[in-house]
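pipeline/complex-builder :: batch 7 item 3
reading input block
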Amino acid sequence: MDKMPRWADVFLIPLISLLLAAGLSALVILAIGENPWAAVKMMVSGALGSTYGWGYTLYYTTNFIFTGLAVAVAYHARLFNIGGEGQAMLGGLGVALACLYLPLPHWLLALPVAAIGAALFGAAWALIPAYLQAKRGSHIVITTIMFNFIAAGLLNYLLVNLLRPVGSMDPATDKFPEGTHLPTLHDLLAPIGIEFSKAAPANVTFVVALLACLAVWLLLWRTRLGYEIRAFGHSEPAAVYAGINPVKITMIAMLISGGLAGLMAVNNVMGEAERLVLNAVEGAGFIGIAVALMGRNHPFGVLIAALLFGFLYQGGAELALWTSIPRELIVVIQALVILFTGALDHMVRMPLERIFLSLRKGA
Amino acid sequence: MAAPDAAKAPAIELRGISKSFGPVQANKDISIRVMPGTIHGIIGENGAGKSTLMSILYGFYKADSGEVFINGTKTNITDSQAAIAAGIGMVFQHFKLVPNFTVLENVILGAEDGALLRPSLAKARKELTALAKEYELNVDPDSVVEDLSVGHQQRVEILKALYRRAEILILDEPTGVLTPAEADHLFRILENLRREGKTIILITHKLREIMEITDTVSVMRRGEMTATVKTAETSPEHLAELMVGRKVLLRVDKVPAAPGAQILEVENLQVVDSSGVQRLKGIDLDIRAGEILGIAGVAGNGQSELLEVLGGMREAKGSIRLNGQPLPLSGAGADASARRQLGIAHVPEDRHREGLILDFHAWENVAFGYHRDEKYQRGLFMDNDALRQDTQAKMAKFDVRPPDCWLSAKSFSGGNQQKIVVAREIERNPDLLLIGQPTRGVDIGAIEFIHEQIIALRDQGKAILLVSVELDEIFALSDRIAVMFDGQIMGFRDPATTDEKELGLMMAGITDTRDPVSQEASQHG
C-alpha cells in the first residue's frame, strides 16, 4: 500500500522543499542586511518579467533538460551518472568539429549533423565508464567523476594546442561558419507575430529539448528497451532471470545517458557561443543531477525542474548584477534549493507520510 | 491485576494489542497469556500478523493500544534494550550475527561489561560452558561464526539471549533452514529450557512442529487471534481450518505418474561460483515426460545453482540435453530467454528477488521474461494493451486477488504474487517446468491451488523439476525424489518406499547404506 497519494509525492514534496529553501535563503539575505522581498521581486522580474529574461531562463532550462534527462535515463538502470559535465564537454567537441570541418550550408542541415556529433561524442565519453562498470564492476560514480576531470584536461589540451586559430591568444576555436547559425527564439517567433528579445540566447535547441523529453518518456515506458532498462534497474537478478543481459543494458543505458548530456552542447556551443571555449558547460552537468532528483527522474518532472533551475540561474544573475547581494550568495541560494529538494528529501517526506497516514485513518 | 496469592502470574500477558500500518490493521485487539515454563506456539499464514505482534513484544514497534504484562507487572517496552531488560530474548529467522567474529565475541557484543574486552570474554567463556552443559547447547566458543553450520549459528543466537538473562525466548520460524536432525536437536534444547522454567514462544507455519512440541497454541488470521487451544486437545486439520477459515485438504490428490519419453538429461554438471567455490560437483539426473522429480535438501547445498543453470541464469560445465538436443552451457545461447524459447519455464525460488519486479504493475510482470514475444510488440513499441488483456485473463484463470492489473506486484499477498509467477510460467505450456520453493511464504489456501496446478501440468505429460526445502511438499508432489547435499546428489528414492528419517540422513550427507539394487529399482519409479 502506498503511503501517500502520488500527487503528494510528485508535487507537494518538491513544493514544500522549495519553500523551505526559499525561507532559509530569505534569512540569509536578511542576515547580510538586504531585503529578501525585494530580492524575490528582482529575481522574478529579471528572469520572467521580460522576453529578454525569458530568453535567458529558457536558454539555461534547455541545458538543464539535457543534463537532467541524462541522469534520469541512467538512474532508471540504477546507474548514477555524474559524468554529465564531462560528457557535455565532449559533446561540445563533437559540435565544434562538425561545424568547423563539415560543409553545412544551412541550419536545417547543421542542426541534425551537429546534434549527432554531440550525442556521439557524449556517448563515447560514457562508453569507457560504462564498460568498466559492466565488465569489471568499477563503480560508475567514481569513474564518471574521474572522467569529468579527464575531459577538462583533454579539452584544455585540444583548445590550446590544436584547435586554437593561429595567432589567437584565446584558448577557443574559431567562430563557426555562418551556415551553422541556429535561429533564436526571436527568429522563430517573429514570423508568427510574436515579439521576442533579439539579445537573448534561447534558440531552436529548446524545441529539441522538449522533443527529447517526449522521446525519453516513450523510450522508458513504451519500448521494450525501456522496459528492460527499468527492470534491470529494479533488480539485476530478476533481469538475469528474464534473459536480459546486464552488460548490454548497462552499456546501452549509459550510452543513451552520455548522448543526452552531449546534446546539451548544441544549445550552449552552437546556439549561444558559436565557437568552443574552455569550460563551456559551466556546471550544468552537475545541476542535471539536482534536476533529475527533483523531477523524480521522470522526463516531464525533469522539464519542470529544469525550468525552476533556469529561473534560479537567470534570476540569480540579475540579482548579482543589480543589487549588492554578492554573486557567491546566489550560489548559496541555488545550493540550498539543491540541498532541500535533493539531499533532504526525507526530511519533508517522513512527516508528510505520517500526516497522510493519520488523515487516512481518520477518514 | 493478577492476585498475588493465586497461582503463578503469566510470564507474558498481552491485553488488547492493536497495531495498524496506515489502512492495514496488522494486529486487532490481541490478548494472550503464556504461563511460565511452557512452550506456546503461534501459528498463522504469512501476513497474519505474527511477526508484527512479536516485534511489538520486542520493542521494534509501538502498539497503538493495549498493554504488556511481564510476570504480572505492567511493562512498557519502548525498544529492544527494554525488552532485554525485561528478560525477553529473540531469535530471528535471519540471524543477527557478525560472520567474521568468534562465537564469544558475538555473544558479548552489546553486552560488554566495560571498555576492555578481556574480562567480558573470560566471563562469557565460563557462562557458555555452563550453558552448554545445561541445555545441550554445544558450540566451540572460539570458532568463527561464518564457519559454523546454520544449526550451530542458531545455537549462538540462543546463547546470546540466555547470556543476557532471558527468561522468555521468542523464536521466529526457527526450523526453516535446518535439517530434520538439526530441528530435532533444537527441539531437545527447547525442552531442556522449558524444564528449567524458561518460557518459549515459537512462531511457525509448520503444523507438525506445533503438534510436536508446544503446550498451547494460538492461531492468528488476518491480524486477529482466532483461537488459543491446548495442543493436546487439537489436531493439525483443526488448526489448518482455524488458520485459513475453511476446510483444507492437507494431502494432495494425484493419480500415479505415467512417465513417457526422456525430456531432460543432465550429465556431470559442474558449477564453480565467482569466489571459486565448487557449488555443483557433477550432477547426473534425468526427468521424463509426465513426471515430477523432487529435489530435497537443506537450503544452500546446490539446489539453487542447479535451477539457475537449467534456467539459463548461470554458466556451467557438463552436459544438458532437452528432448535429446544438447543445450549450450555458456555464451550467447545459454541465457534465460534462449532457454524459454526451447520450452523451459522457470518459477524461481525467490519471487521477490527474481520472479517479479515488485515496483512494476501486475501487467508489466505478467510477460516478464517473455516480453520479447511477437504478440507483445506493436511496431517500435510494446503492445501494452495486449499485455493488460493477457494479465486480466491469467488473473481470472488463476484466481489472483484482487484482479486489478494496475496494482504493483508488491501490493499483492505472497500467495497471489506466486500465482502471478506460476500463471506466467505454466500458461506457456512448457516442456519442462523448473519450480523452486513453489509455496514459500504462500498461504495454505494458495498452496493447495498451486499444488493442483503443478499436478495438472504433470498429467498433461510435462516434465517437472521441483526444488523445495519442505519435505512435506517433496513427499506430496514428487514421483521420484533426489536428495542433494554439498553439490552432489546423494541418491534417488521412491516416495512410496522411503521416509523422512532416511531422507533426513541423506540431507545431512550420510551416504545411504541400502543395497544398490533397490536404488536402481526406484530410478524411474
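note: Residues 61-315 of chain A form a domain with the ABC transporter involved in vitamin B12 uptake, BtuC fold (CATH 1.10.3470).
queue -> next item
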